[in-house]
Amino acid sequence: MQPLDRVTTTEAAKLTGRSIDAVRAAIRRGSLSASNVRGHWLIESEAVIRWDKRTRRQPAYRRPSAHERSAEIIGIYYSVSAHELASLAGIHIGNARKHLTLLAQEGRVQRLEGDQWVLTVDQEQGVA
């Protein structure tokens, strides 16, 4: 086997489109065999390709944005003021106002008289 047939963890990650942490975790678990040479993992490129084909990819976790949570609260309570939203969401009033502004710019909420905010018609249909 020629030295070019082996890749580093960084190269394995690029080759498979996975993170370096995923490659290192596979080595730790023993699902991807590698040799540690002078403090660097070297992996046979064919082994990397086989590992990539047989290993399921974990979907990336996407944490919901804070203003998404605010939209959910408005949907639950139908109509809220900025102060009510701050209290219900456990956030500062300034952040509640910012969330309402962002949601309004996205066309997801509208402001009524008396500082009350409601979901737009399209958003209400998605909640029901």
Protein model, in words:
By secondary structure, the chain is an alpha+beta fold. It has 2 domains: 3-54, Orthogonal Bundle (Arc Repressor Mutant, subunit A), CATH 1.10.10; 66-127, Winged helix-like DNA-binding domain superfamily/Winged helix DNA-binding domain (Arc Repressor Mutant, subunit A), CATH 1.10.10. 53% of the residues lie in helices and 16% in strands. It has 7 helices and 6 strands. It has helices spanning 9-16, 20-29, 45-54, 66-77, 82-89, 93-105, 121-127, and strands at residues 6-7, 35-37, 40-44, 79-80, 109-112, 116-119. The strands form 2 sheets. The chain has a 3-stranded antiparallel sheet with strand order 1-3-2. Helix 4 (66-77) crosses helix 6 (93-105). The model has no long low-confidence stretch (mean pLDDT 89).
Task: Give the key terms.
3-stranded antiparallel beta sheet; 128 residues; Helix-turn-helix domain-containing protein; Arc Repressor Mutant, subunit A; WH_DNA-bd_sf; HTH_17; 7 helices; rod-shaped
Secondary-structure map with pairings?
Layout lengths: L5 E2 L1 H8 L3 H10 L5 E3 L2 E5 H10 L11 H12 L1 E2 L1 H8 L3 H13 L3 E4 L3 E4 L1 H7 L1
Antiparallel strand pairs: 1-3, 2-3, 4-6, 5-6
Helix pairs in contact: 1-2, 4-6, 5-6
